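Model: Ready when you are.
Researcher: Fold this.
Model:
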Amino acid sequence: MTDDGVDVVKGPGGRQFLTVAPEVITELTAEAMHDIAHFLRPSHLAQLRAIIDDPEASPNDRFVALDLLRNANIAAGGVLPMCQDTGTAIVMGKRGRHVLTDGTDEEAIARGVYEAYTKLNLRYSQLAPLTMWEERNTGTNLPAQIELYAEDPDGHPDVYKFLFMAKGGGSANKSFLYQETKALLNPTRMMQFLEEKLRSLGTAACPPYHLAVVVGGTSAEYALKVAKLASARYLDSLPTSGSMLGHGFRDLDLENEILQMTRQFGIGAQFGGKYFCHDVRVIRLPRHGASCPVAIAVSCSADRQALAKITPSGVFLEKLETDPARFLPDTTPAELSDDVVRIDLNRPMDEIRAELSKYPVKTRLSLTGPLVVARDIAHAKIAERLDAGEPMPQYLRDHPVYYAGPAKTPEGYASGSFGPTTAGRMDSYVERFQAAGGSLVMLAKGNRSAAVTRACQKYGGFYLGSVGGPAARLAQECIRRVEVLEYPELGMEAVWKIEVEDFPAFIVIDDKGNDFFAEVTKPVLTIGRR
């Protein structure tokens, strides 16, 4: 990036010290947060292209992979971020003992996060607790998660290394800790355990995933941290065997076994197929004899991280792919998928539901017409109105509801990045809302609870799954108009009305009690390690 603000000075005993000005750290942070919002690693894009080229991939696998590649191409324009949930900013720094700063490193990093999120078309997602029950958006996406260590990176005392990440709520919520025992440490039981837990991940975090499994750890929190770093491929250089020194290592054989197991689930890249995961990292850590933590984490389709370093030669940021179009195939979406059913949302709700009732789960749809957008806080406020004896708002009776929250709208655009949020967070409202005549057609990402399936069967409702991940493409190509209907003070959590054209979706739960995910997430528990 630059060598301004970086200097080398001589210290006692002729030792060489690297001096770094705080504005250098701020500029590096701001640039990194910009890049990871718009660009992906070439290796990740190559994995998406491999799905399209794989003759064993399902049509839905290939459709999702193509949609994500098209989304990456739009995001690389630098205007619309790849995902509407532009995430919590996470920065880890390792400062060599011969690197000198003014001691305000954490503040300098936070300032860089602030500059990126306030100047770019990113979303503010951080809520400040005012009381135990009341929260308010900070309006800056601060605070960031910042961790700084006094450690010579790779043995170099005059180097400052960083890992920049943006972690959205969907993938962060799929980090899990299980407190197990020695009984888990045999091949058959381990694979049975992992099959059950990995199936339960579902699709709410936008697969295909980069999956990490960590077994062991000197504490529960350390196991979780290692899993997060492993999902970013930050620990790929670990040794591949253990020793009496008690260090962690990667188990490459188990990585491959788990990957092959996930390809038999049938979940696929969101709507059936084999590509539930791009790859798997398995790390075995030392443990206390009375504890055996197991941590699972994923990096989602918005695979946002970048490495950086400050050295005597200057400031360097990992070069991400700025031309993702080179990974796009020449084929068209029609050649990669089954027939598409077009649904006109301008019709009355009863006619929309009657049309949807003709088709089985997994049917791919193209939606055109009005949608109402509402998510967590809006649902809570509408529930309060029902509690007070008020009727269901007419807009939820007349239109399908899309669970989402947009990023900022760039000048000249109809919408900012506007992909779906996790449906499961609204599950507790569905039965009551449908009984009151609302939410009879829902659109979001991820699997739902059995209670939602029962409600849809009872009240004639549907849950449609949208592809999780391509928020920039949806904004540029599918969303034609956006207006606030209610609660403008909630910002991205307001109730919106949007007009969509050729908006992709799949039938996941129908009015007959069928749920696509109910079968593919059910453990088989017959897989053992050979």
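Researcher: Now this one.
Model:
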Amino acid sequence: MADYTTDKIRNVVFLAHSGAGKTSLIEAMLYKGGAIKSQGTIAQGNTVGDYNLDEIERKTTINVKIMNLTWGGCHVNIIDSPGFADFIGDILSGLAAADAGVLVIDAAGGIQVGTERYWSLLESKGLPRIIFINKTDKESADLKKITADVVKKFGKKCVAISGTLSESQIESIAESDDKLIEKFLETGKLTDEEIRTGLAKAVADGKLVPILSGSAEKGEGIKELLDFIVNYFPAPNVKTGPFSALVFKTVVDPYIGQISVFKVLSGSIVSDASFLNNTKGQKERAGQILDLQGKATSPKSKVIAGDIAGVAKLKITQTGDVICDEKSPVQVETIKFPEAAISFSIKPKTRGDEDKILGSLTKLSYEDPSFQIIRDAQTKELVVAGLGDLHLDVMINRLKSRFNVEVEIGTPKVAYKETITMKADAQHRHKKQSGGAGQFAEVWMRVEPLSRGTGFEFVDDIVGGAIPGPFVVSCEKGIRSIMSTGILAGYPITDVRAVVYDGKTHPVDSKDIAFQIAARSGFKEAFLKANPVLLEPIMDVEISAPEEYMGSITGTISSRRGRIAGVEANSVKAKMPLAEMYKYASELKSITSGRASYTMRFSHYEEVPTKIAQAIIAQAKAQKEEAKEE
């Protein structure tokens, strides 16, 4: 049983642009807190956080990890998250379990694209945070300048906090509370206790973001960071009542099997207890509850509200599921993972691996829900989809390193979608009377465009029982059956509302299958009348290169239908269609003599220009005809 209470728990996510030293900082904290006996390094590949083979080789965090330490009477759960945007799924998983965050900045590298991205994520979640400026021991580090840059970029609520507080720092703290600022303006002083409580409130309310600094490598500033976490970060905001928890991460351990990592939202759970997976609507039984320290696990008899732990070998539970007491089902906000933007077909190099490959891919998708496996309905190919080149590269490499499966990779495919731009109506009658029992259904429907990112919506607008309730359900079933295969070019349909508002039945021949067919056909007719278009994924791209190449690089962006969002001395930000990113790395390498690199992440969907869309649709039709002939 835990020897601490909920008010003594701190759940802290660590975020940073890759290379800022986040993993080294966590390692230094674990060592300082006595959780580990010696401090590992990235160079030696022996840190607690980065233990996967590909993380050691790439020297960067790829998956979210849980570690913990005890400091100042508090149990601190450290949530280590990836630095690259390609692994945003894991970053979102970590944020879902956090009550506060530490944003790590490289004192020499300064504010980078990842720094801004993760600040925005912390802001959107409303999480209290600290900024820790790392690597202050480096020759090129300029602490005064980087601190000023932070305040300029993220606002005056970012305040450098030192051991001895200045008058301006105390005033910033006092501004968090009306009574404190009133006293400070009258007397010019606050007691130590008033400063402490004022600072804690200001941080918790997001009115003040302390800036701390130090060097993970030299062990400088680590004690101060730990003190701040336990003294000024809030305890978990838990609910009263029976057990409930959110499963925010799944780990596939080669020896233990699948480990479901969860945060308890209310109540508590013990090993071998039964509970309800409310997302799946089925009962589960917990095995041994596990304490997590990177890849190391140890038995834990009980997990209290607010705490984080793992449990092995659950049968149906996956990332994002809500688990709870069987008698008190609960619904909570779950994790919304980004849509895959890039995909390619794969097939095993060895024929004997054909059965093995699907099971191996499925295990990888359990660990990372933003990695998807799709069986192409037209080509019958096995397709994997992810958030970017690096994301898919890592997953394919894991197939080989973990499961000893090597694959051949097809040409990258863009995850286009189909939608409509106007309203349209259709009436379709399905009638079959030859050969056996008859079939009859008539469906009147309307399709309407929805705002981008909404998905699909079905509306039952039947009055007077023109179509009986069970057959309305059949209509929805029929329409949904073509949502994933599309109508224009075989791509999923999105952002469409289908309204069934009238119809006719036959006393004998009307049945489920008849209404499925009628609704499906009617939907196709209405869809094609509603000025259908293709949508394509647009990526946020940041290209880094020496300044002398910026002119050539901006030219490549324009030639690839990109829009420049900002230019700095050594970097360009742009929004570019994913379809135009194929072989872009080779072009950059050519024009910059290998001195440029880029990162990209999914931004949003936009309409494909008409001429390009027509070519895509024509190609899809040709492929469909070829498949028929075969």
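Researcher: Key takeaway?
Model: The chain has 16 helices and 30 strands.
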